[in-house]
Amino acid sequence: MGTTNTTNHIGRKMQKKDLHVTFGFAGNATLIQSQIIDIEKGEIRNFNDPLSQGPLCDLDDVEAIENRKRWLQNVFGSIQSEGGSNFIDDNLSLLRELIDTSNTYEKIYLWVGDEADEKITTARLLFHLQDLSIPIYRLNFDKMEFQNEKGVKLYPTSLQVMRVEDISEASQHFDELSAGDKQFFVSIWEHLRTDQSVVHLFNRSGKYVSGEDTFFDQYLLNHCTDKPKRSPFIVADTLFDIWEEFRGGCVGDSFLYHRLNELAHGGKIEISNRHEDPERAKVVYDVRKLN
């Protein structure tokens, strides 16, 4: 009896776990809250660096890493995460850890979609795991069946926009990546890791589109008029246009507010009537288009 118990205990101790990879705080929190992952059998790890924006970097490229940090700090302000670190270093550390421990997992499940941040994160991860032989699965959002309260079919493209109660349905639609699938993602990162642009997107046809800081400026200017207009309305309308062309998740409002301020510095628009709070003043103000 004692021998059997000891053997079973050792077997359980040595059993490999599955790795579940998420992107973004919202997607990670939704998966955890669903409690669909048995923590005895699965481990959840989360990436959150928005790789669709800013100069890209890879492991051990010190110059590129510092360049990315400077750009993001200039656009978004603080990039600090808990514990005095920053999310760029945190994500690179996680990538190194998964590379080093990848063979200790039974299977890998990628809870990610085709939005730019998630697609590029997947590409970078699979580039570094391309010699791994264990099965890797990825969500297939096209197979999911979701409807709103009026019975209209929904087309989610990311875990980040899903409800906790949707996770059970989503979990039924994982596809194992073939060698060709993996090479598709590997080739994306092979190209992007040398791309010097700062905007990295995929249009609805899946074609890669890149550009500089000014990429979204015309989208913003399209919603500016010769009469003062409040900045949140301009940004909201611009986000709608961008999401229609590139899907959601490819850019946040912080970057667009930053670009409005840059357009003002460049004499394209005039900013006035800023919010009285210094922090709010960076994003809430009147905008008038200059001829």
Helix content: 40-55%
Overall spatial form: globular
Uncertain stretches of 5 or more adjacent residues: 1-12
Q: What integer value in Å does the Rg equal?
A: 22 Å
Quantity of strands, as a count: 12
Query: Reading side by side through the largest sheet, how are the strands ordered?
Result: 2-1-3-4-7
Global mean pLDDT:
90
SSE class: alpha/beta
Q: Termini, distance in Å?
A: 87 Å
Number of helical segments?
A: 10
Q: Could you give the order of the helices and strands?
A: HEHEHHEHEEEHEHEEHEHHEE
Model description:
The chain is of the alpha/beta class and 291 residues long. The protein is built from ten helices and twelve strands. It has a five-stranded mixed sheet. The chain has a three-stranded antiparallel sheet with strand order 10-12-11. α5 (116-128) links the parallel β3 (105-110) and β4 (136-139). α5 crosses α7 and α9 (231-246) packs across α10. The chain is globular and about 65 Å long. Residues 1-12 have low confidence and may be disordered.
Give me some keywords for this one.
291 residues; alpha/beta; 5-stranded mixed sheet; 3-stranded antiparallel sheet; 10 helices
In brief, what are we looking at here?
This protein has 291 residues and is of the alpha/beta class. The chain has ten helices and twelve strands.
SSE inventory with pairings:
Elements: H1 2-14, E1 17-23, H2 25-34, E2 42-47, H3 62-76, H4 87-101, E3 105-110, H5 116-128, E4 136-139, E5 146-147, E6 153-154, H6 167-170, E7 174-176, H7 179-192, E8 199-202, E9 208-211, H8 217-221, E10 229-230, H9 231-246, H10 253-265, E11 269-272, E12 286-289
Parallel strand pairs: 1-2, 1-3, 3-4
Antiparallel strand pairs: 4-7, 5-6, 8-9, 10-12, 11-12
Helix pairs in contact: 5-7, 9-10
